[in-house]
Structure formats: C-alpha cells, structure tokens
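Bench notes, afternoon.
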Amino acid sequence: MRLLAARERTVPLGAPMRNASIAFDAMTASALALVAEHGGRRLAGFAFDSIGRYGKGGLLKERFLPRLLTAQPGSLLDKNGLLDPDACVRAVMANEKAGGHGERPGAVGLIEAAAWDLRAKALGVPLWKAIADWSGTLDANPRIAVYASCGHFREGGGLAEEVKAARDAGYSTVKIKLSGDLASDLARIEEARRVARLAVDLNGCLAPGRATEWFEAVAPFDLAWIEEPAPPLDYELLARYGAMAPAPLATGENLFSFDDARNLLRYGGLRAGRDLVQVDPLLAYGVGEYVRIIEAFERASWTRRAFLPHAGHLFAAHCVAGLGLRAAEAAPDASLPYGGWWSGAHVADGTMAIPERPGVGFEAKPNLFALLAPLAE
C-alpha cells in the first residue's frame, strides 16, 4: 500500500441549539481523506469529526499531515504491506512533547481513523471486524446497543416531541440536556420521562452549593445515568458527586489521552460495576490510545461494559462492536450529516446491526459522504 494524498476540509455544522456550557451556532468539523494505491487499486480512507470541539484544519494542514506524507513509505506499513494506524500515529507525533494534549489528540485521532478505514477496505471487511482481529476481541458482534442523544436547549421548546421521535425511531434510552438549575431541570425531566427512559447531561455545570438538593430531587426518577455533573478535570469534585449521586455517573468525553483517563481512574472516585466512561476514540489519539485506556481500567477490575464512547458517530459504533463495549451514542436526526446511521440500518429495541460494508461505510450515509467524497477526487 502506498499513500498518495491526504486532504482535510473544515465544514460548518452550526445549529440553533445549546447545552449548559456552549452554543452550537458556529460549530465546525473536519472531514479527512487519505488516498492510497493498493494492489493496483486506488482506495480512499475517510474520517469525520466528533461534534463539539470544532474543526482541526490548521493543526492537520500545518503540522500533522505533512509529517505523514513525508514519512518513509515503508515505515507506515505492517508486515503484510497494509497501512498500520499505530505507525501513522508514531509518524505524525514526531517531535511532539509529552503532556499538554489540548486539541492535538483530535487531529491525530482523525488521521488514525482514516487509516483504519483504509486498512479495513484493503482487507475487504467492516471496520469492526478489522479492529476485533487486531485487538483480539473474542466477543465482537456487529449488533450493538445504541442510545439517542438529543434534548438540547432550543428556542420554542419541543423537548417532549424530540424525545418521542427518538423513542419512535427505536431507541429505548434517550439522553437530554440539563442546566443544574433544579426547577428547570425537574420540569425538563418530567416533560421527557413520559415518553422514554432518560439519561441526563449537565455538561459540567452542577454548582457544588446546589448538588445535595439536586441529587436528592432527581433520585425518584430512576435515571439511566447522570453525565458530567462536574467540570471534566475536577476529579476531586467528581469524587464528591459520585458519593452523593443516586444513579450511575458518566464522564470522560472531554478527556483526550491515556494520561487524563488514568488520572480519572486514580482520583475521580468512579465505581467499577456502576459508573460509565465516555472517552471518545476520535478525540483521544485513536483506537490504539483508546485500547490502552480500556486496559488500564480492566487492570483495576473494570469491564468493557462500562465504556460508552462519546459521539464519534459511525466510527465509534464500529469501536463498540469491535471492542465489545456497552453502547454507541447517536444524534437520532438522520437529516444531519452526523445524525442517524447508514441507509438501510434500523434501530429496534435499542439495538442496531452494523451493515456488512468494507471500512466504516461512510459511502452508505449520503449526506455525510457528500462532505467526504470531494476530498478523494
């Protein structure tokens, strides 16, 4: 396999909605293609951002893609002559200092994800199968649990209708956004719980002075989980909340490295067998780093059923299948490039089967592939 080109495009994905922390009206994302020649065929591997951290075009074009394209071709391949995602990460991380991860992991994660798509296409297998074979996962399965992530704050409301649409689309668990204000949060839970089992997301905005009353008030609702009640890096506060919470806590989507996840394990007060870890492979250097994180938790008596990767869309669904994780997150509105699933894939009773297509299968999500296809021309 010989790498021919690497191209990024930053696309606007603005939407008139917000969570307790940020608005999405100016949101952007990076679309990436790696083009290669393999066995006389031209192949393209694609990747698309997780939503919520903005595009990474500057980092990719100025720093990481030039390193990839100037690496010795043989250094990027495995013993079978296929593009090796781990080798690609090593190449693009040349001369990068340890620590201080910032937005760098998301740029590197996109390159690794596109390399995985290329590798799986060259093998002629779905990405989940390529990941399972590489990682030695024995219980890999293309049928996975999925949940709907919606219920943002919008002008004009419509929360109950949005949750009902997700339930009617086959999702059995729906996550909605809360703010940490008890009165409004209780009203939103009451409105949404009439139509679905709920998880809630505070986006780090539960103030310590309100926490005791807030946790006591939501206890009767049997929430599936309470997501990010504390700011992402405040492990001490998270540990306090963990001791108070009446439902499992979920966190980790804003931790982008093995270093940060290890500190979460050491100091965050999370409980094996109850709480959930939401580190996002696309934002955290890719599958290789993600597996290292999982293995660190496994050594501390956690299981893979505790892992709910944040967003990541189609790519993360393959990670859930290929690594035997708990469930994948989806924006349920298929009219959005990052919403819904592949054409012909259906959610039923909170599960979905990944279609048998080589690679990630972006080609079977028309409105998303329209953003990717020009990069391979």
